[in-house]
Amino acid sequence: xxxxxxxxxxxxxxxxxxxxxxxxxxxxxxxxxxxxxxxxxxxxxxxxxxxxxxxxxxxxxxxxxxxxxxxxxxxxxxxxxxxxxxxxxxxxxxxxxxxxxxxxxxxxxxxxxxxxxxxxxxxxxxxxxxxxxxxxxxxxxxxxxxxxxxxxxxxxxxxxxxxxxxxxxxxxxxxxxxxxxxx
Length: 183
Known about the structure:
Layout: H1 4-18, E1 20-22, E2 25-27, E3 48-53, E4 56-66, E5 72-81, H2 82-133, H3 139-142, H4 151-182
């Protein structure tokens, strides 16, 4: 029966037979198309670096492998083409930019509709004031009081009541002047 130590030695020998070695480093067998030339370009003291390989830039991330005693026994490296990060970054920027533009457009549309509605209400209130200025008090019969309970509605409704009172005073004044002129 083999002991745990023997199994570790057997696994190490098997790993050596499968892998490649460079100086004191043991390179794993699962390197998916990576040849020995790239090893010379790697700075094993940096955990994150960019390297050029076969005409393309890669982001290489190295992570230390520590043994049971805490000593570093190797490194695991992961390479990703930088073009993937650039593409994903630009796609993300475009999507976020599109979302921001849609939100700005919707906000602007809502503000436009609110401002348009407010302008219509203010214009009708202003039309009442202009009619009263020109002594056209009959306009109060054509204008419907507003049912809303905001400041513009309250002012407009008060102006309608004021117009009715001014019309009655104006008619009374005309009748009084007409009767006095006859005398």
